[in-house]
């Protein structure tokens, strides 16, 4: 037996008249889907352009489909913002580690094996970036006045860096001696 709800449903999905809907449903013993297929086969209704499927409750289904798409879009944007947020977080963690290493290690200035001063590497790097025109000449001039520079701290355990700094100081000392000997030789002549 065909009910009015079945007829209404078939009309809603196919746009056929009550009489056609009732007849199609009677031929299929109330099966709405079978009635739609038969109407398509008889060219009384047009099949969907995409060759897709009919839905029994198009309004609700469309709403749920659009909700699914919106949810998918939100998830996509959340994953993008999360990945961007993660990238920012990783950058700040990396930067924090670098600053921490710079603060636990120091640049030491010595003269005659006595420590004159020590500044954190972070401060030294900032000075080199923002006042290199002052710091670099001072460091070079200091070498000719007998100052030596060392790196110390838990992260600077490689002694080859300090040996290289000592060899530069020794070369500056040697240059200074050669210059003073050359000047003394000229005075003696």
UniProtKB/TrEMBL annotation:
- List UniProt keywords, sorted A-Z: Membrane, Transmembrane, Transmembrane helix
Specify residue ranges for compositional bias: Low complexity: 51-66
Which portions of the sequence form the region Disordered?
42-81
Does this entry carry the keyword Transmembrane? yes
Coiled coil, from the record: none
- Per UniProt, what is one Pfam family of this protein? DUF4342
Give TM regions: 118-147
The UniProt record lists the DUF4342 domain at 83-145
Q: Highest taxon of the source? A: Bacteria
Tell me what this protein is called: Ubiquitin
Taxonomy of the source species: Bacteria, Bacillati, Bacillota, Desulfuribacillia, Desulfuribacillales
